[in-house]
DNA sequence: AGGAGCATGTAACTAGTTACATGATTGT
DNA sequence: ACAATCATGTAACTAGTTACATGCTCCT
């Protein structure tokens, strides 16, 4: 399961509670790996019994206690060996492509509206990635060692959104 | 569940057995929606009890009998209403992006080898899409009504593979 | 008084994967 | 003799989603 590994990556950077992880997944990593808090709590529980992570309770004032998880030595070695295994190409699953393929059975205006919606979503996501890039990496030609990975991931997001946008534009050209 | 709808699209074009569907999913639709034969049989069973499809046995000589499924009127109306509902943007899940993000914890050569592998896979897939396009749609400016959808889907595949390739090249440039 | 944010979870369900199981025919 | 193709499935498991559940504090 890759969520486990995504959590290990995140905890390797900094220890965190389930709640913290859920927020991190909403922000940075979450663009490439979504996870709900329910799923995170469940997986953290299993990871703890597998000794990949360990937790200790931290009392806070004015806020509920939190259970802070840290990666263990075992977790780190699991992470290291996962990092160097070849990654299987992920199967892309596109409901939209299935609908588009059935265009001749469908309603042209409905498809058109759907494509326009998608186009706007791609445009918005692209803009958000680009402003992240400008904000966090103003000098992409001079990146620290630990910035290169995140930067390249962000570039991947930008490239993917541009491609999504280009596809929508091509569809719109054909349909309207 | 979108597999149900992908099956309905496929059966709306032509009736088929579970086995036939599995092969179709391996070929055209499968580039955008993978499904194993086990899963297809299971879903077909449910769809039959839901009256979206109906089957009859066809005896063949020299080959095992097959159960040919056809879309029902109810299936067709389900399909029609699904086709016009707005499509939620699919969350992209990239194990590769998670690994790349952890580049500073990883082995540079292993990542490099992985990226090269992915690059070749994208290149191979792109070539396969492009030869499909050249073969099935030699005149993309004069497409029949029922060809436009599949053509646009193929274009989406081409655009996505080009983007994947471009990303790999950018990573390779940074890493080597 | 009400909503947002902090914090943790359980339960039930749906979707998808992997392993197992069978058996005939056709081609090398 | 052996592998590939045709043909259909079951069983066990893993991953992920949706709905439900609780309770405190801070801000408006």
TrEMBL record, chains A, B:
It comes from the Bacteria. SUPFAM superfamilies: Winged helix' DNA-binding domain. Residues 7-80 form the Transcription regulator PadR N-terminal domain. Residues 92-175 form the Transcription regulator PadR C-terminal domain. InterPro entries: Tscrpt_reg_PadR_C (IPR018309), Tscrpt_reg_PadR_N (IPR005149), WH-like_DNA-bd_sf (IPR036388), WH_DNA-bd_sf (IPR036390). It holds the Pfam family PadR. PANTHER family: TRANSCRIPTIONAL REGULATOR YQJI (PTHR43252), TRANSCRIPTIONAL REGULATORY PROTEIN (PTHR43252:SF4). This is PadR family transcriptional regulator. The lineage of its organism: Bacteria, Bacillati, Actinomycetota, Actinomycetes, Propionibacteriales.
């Amino acid at each position: 399961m890759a969520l486990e590994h995504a959590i290990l990556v995140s905890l390797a950077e900094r220890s965190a509670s389930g709640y913290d992880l859920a927020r991190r997944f909403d922000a940075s990593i979450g663009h490439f790996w979504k996870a709900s808090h329910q799923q995170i709590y469940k997986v953290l529980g299993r990871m703890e019994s597998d000794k990949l992570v360990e937790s200790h309770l931290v009392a806070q004032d004015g806020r509920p206690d939190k259970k802070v998880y840290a990666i263990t030595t075992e977790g780190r070695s699991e992470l290291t060996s996962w990092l160097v295994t070849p990654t299987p190409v992920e199967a892309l699953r596109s409901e939209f492509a299935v609908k588009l393929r059935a265009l001749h059975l469908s309603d042209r205006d409905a498809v058109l509206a759907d494509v326009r919606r998608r186009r706007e979503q791609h445009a918005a996501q692209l803009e958000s990635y680009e402003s992240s890039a400008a904000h966090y990496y103003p000098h992409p030609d001079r990146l620290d060692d630990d910035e290169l990975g995140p930067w390249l991931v962000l570039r991947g997001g930008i490239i993917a959104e541009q491609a999504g946008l280009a596809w929508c534009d091509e569809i719109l050209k054909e349909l309207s």
